[in-house]
Amino acid sequence: MMRAAVCVRAGGPEVLEIRELPVPAVRAGWSLVRVQGAGLNRSELRTRQGHSPAVRFPRVLGIECVGVVAASTDPRLAEGTTVAAVMGEMGRAFDGGYAEYALLPNPLLMPVTTTLPWTVLAALPETYLTAWGALDALGIGPGTAGRLLIRGGTSSVGLAAASIAAGHGVEVAATTRSPAKAGLLTGHVLIDDGGPLTGLPELWPEGPDWVLDLVGARTAVDSLRLVRRGGTVCVAGSLSGWIVPDFEPIAKIPSGTRLTAFHSDDLKGSTALLQRIIGEVEAGTHRAGVDRVFPLDDVAAAHRYLEDDRAAGKLVLVP
What we know:
alpha/beta, Quinone Oxidoreductase, Chain A, domain 1, Rossmann fold, 2 domains, seven-stranded mixed sheet, six-stranded parallel sheet, 16 strands, about 25% helix, about 25% strand
């Protein structure tokens, strides 16, 4: 038997219950992972709230985890191998990382080597793969010159994206709704109180070259207004939800300006990229940005903490 946090129905954090479940039986094409840590993500809050129509309850949530292979059906994954997994319908079509064990499709498992503690490693996969992929979607890479505005800068992805972009040589500004969190940000800091984003015209009169919008639905249209004409906005987060109501592309996208998006499912199974990120964290080039670590028993409190916007960085669950 194993302990798992089961989302028994759609609702508030109280619908997450700790239960004893059978350890999943290994089957062809899937391997069993003993979970050592799982990062929390906003999409899991949305699923718990009932905003993922395809998800059927009860369900063990968790779109990512790290751990060791406990039973393998893949020759490249010996038992005891350290692995990470993200996306691929984890915690949605099948049970995910909020458990002591997770049965996962072999193509999702990324074998890595690391000296990082489990709680640090668990903070990296979804956060840094999303940040890296979103910057790539914007056209930002090594040696890129320009100005990047990150909306939702104190989210785990925002902090990671700022670190990566600054390393590429990009000038970065980031927003936060909470002045108390401003100290976490590097580069230019802008307070977003829900009104017009003050300070940006004085900083960059022509606007940023790129906007990485991690707030999402609430700010996407405004980001198209803020970016310089001909610049690019990438929506890669859902801090304010998934749907932009009454969106009229011709009216809302300035001529020549580009709107794109990034979904982290596009980088599932990206072992080489994740190993590179791990190496850069080990070297001190980037930080994991862990805000708090919660034991599995406190999963409801962890969801409440994230839902109340108290997190500044990544939350991690440990069994």
